[in-house]
User: Which sequence fits this backbone?
């Protein structure tokens, strides 16, 4: 979502596939891929079949990129959402649709005693 806000159309992914199976990984760098371990599952080792499997991160990345396809960030309408500091969000739009996106921010070091109120501006 922040890539949309900053007009970033591409970013670097550390590893396409995990370096090792999760059960034998020595550190988290070995399991940062969008696919599970790709060793010996490609077409040369499997009679032409591709047997790759997404990791949870891969599923999330693919789902999000599919959902956000063709949507563009609208700064004016995002600012009009009047979000408090503890709620992040933005408005994405296509020619025919609006998508309000909200996400939690880190809480302040000391929680307020009163709950925070949020009022959304409605477009007509």
Assistant:
């Amino acid at each position: 979502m922040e890539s949309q806000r900053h007009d970033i159309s591409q970013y670097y992914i550390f590893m396409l596939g995990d370096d090792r199976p999760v059960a034998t990984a020595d550190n988290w760098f070995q399991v940062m891929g969008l696919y599970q371990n790709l060793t010996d599952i490609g077409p040369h080792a499997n009679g032409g079949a591709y047997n790759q499997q997404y990791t949870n991160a891969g599923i999330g990345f693919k789902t999000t990129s599919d959902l956000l396809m063709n949507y563009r960030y609208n700064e004016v309408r995002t600012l009009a959402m009047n979000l408090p500091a503890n709620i992040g969000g933005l408005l994405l739009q296509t020619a025919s649709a609006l998508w309000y996106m909200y996400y939690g921010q880190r809480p302040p070091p000391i929680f307020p005693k009163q709950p925070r109120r949020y009022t959304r501006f409605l477009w007509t």
Summary: The chain has a mean pLDDT of 83. The chain has three helices and three strands. The longest helix spans residues 56-68. The first strand starts at residue 72 and ends at 73.
